[in-house]
Design goal:
474 residues; alpha+beta; 4-stranded antiparallel beta sheet
Amino acid sequence: MSASILPRGASRLACAVSLLLASALASAQLATRPPVDPLITPDASGWLQTHAPNHRIDLHNPFFQSLGSNGRSCNSCHRQGEGWTISAAEVQHRFDVTRGLDPIFALVDGADSPRDDISTLAAREKAFSMLTSRGVIRVGLPMPANAEFTLVAVDDPYGYASAAELSLFRRPLPATNLIWDSAVMWDGRETFAPFQPPMDAGLDMEDIRSSLSSQALHAILGHEQATVTPDQKTLDAIVDFESHLFTAQVFDRAAGILNEGGGMGGANILAQQRFWIGINDALGNDPTLEPFDANVMQLFDDWRNPRAMSSLDPHARARAAIARGEQLFDSMPINIRGVAGLNDVTGQSVIRGTCGTCHDSPNIGNHSVGAPLNIGIADGSRRTPDMPLYTLRNNSTGETVQTTDPGLAMLTGKWADIGKFKGPNLRGLAARAPYFHNGSAATLNDVVNFYDTRFNIGMTDQQKSDLVAFLSAL
């Protein structure tokens, strides 16, 4: 029977099926090979997209040049395919390919101890174990002068850390989506504005540029071991490059293209996202006095309507899961307890919140004000044998606490700041495992499980799966 004599309804159905099959075929092709686009790279969930000026990555920028003595560049630890940071898997691959001789494997901070033997392949495999397994760099910081606490014991499996220099293993933060940062570095040490309450001033664009310039300078002198201080023109070029990068997931192997059907995934849409310091702050620090909107993430709202999702669409089920995950992020009740920097600051022993209480920047997911929090990631109770453990004693009360990283307290010297870190931007998560400041969560499922147990949420397996689907689509 020819198409011309099919019943009208059947003809429309055939056309719809044809279009859906074409879409499914296109998605299947995308799932097996990347589009020819220098700004799209594969990751664990599909494809990651970076938005950059003139639709190109300027490889002549000093960001990609070795400016020190050990062969490293900014790009050594900030790779496009890993969301402009590093993933443990990619670092392990680099180790295997170069036999541990890639510039990232430098004793200064890539090794578990700067005194490690790296003369043989076997020695290097041992020396760089934290970098290859967790994707962490060793940050060496001395105990702060006039601290409210004393270091009374060190248990370092690598035999190096002391009060003169604690070994703090931290993930390199992404060098993208930076114009929305409310703090620079996990502990805010490069932030040119207050990183603690009161947070009424916050950063402006000039603060961000100054903070990023300082971060670049110290990275070149420290991580790259430069013997000559780079000039301001070089630093400005690096800051200009990275502050114009925007990165987000654009394609999901199960859900297809993330900016179709009303979806707003991808970096090109992200680049248009409005933001100011304090936007949508849950504690009332928004300078515009706009009330907090619990619907922090609105990227996939159109996928929540089942009538808008054809049962014939091969992506319908996966898109519905992402939409459910977004709704959980925005509305799933969490009884927030014992979070230093939040419960103590507000005087509330229990805060009835959601994921968006802390990840409040609309469609971005970081905290819109400088709000370092201790959610317990560095607690001694969560210590694993590969992490150093530090015992600190309060000079006034004699109270002791064990931690794998004192966090903000290493800058301020304040007892109340032990274990506090900033919350990272959530876009492009699928490309940059493992997670948390110390790489302690190997997968996004591990992240979700941490929050479920930490706050006794009681999520079902389906809810966890939906939330991971959503986070993977960011």
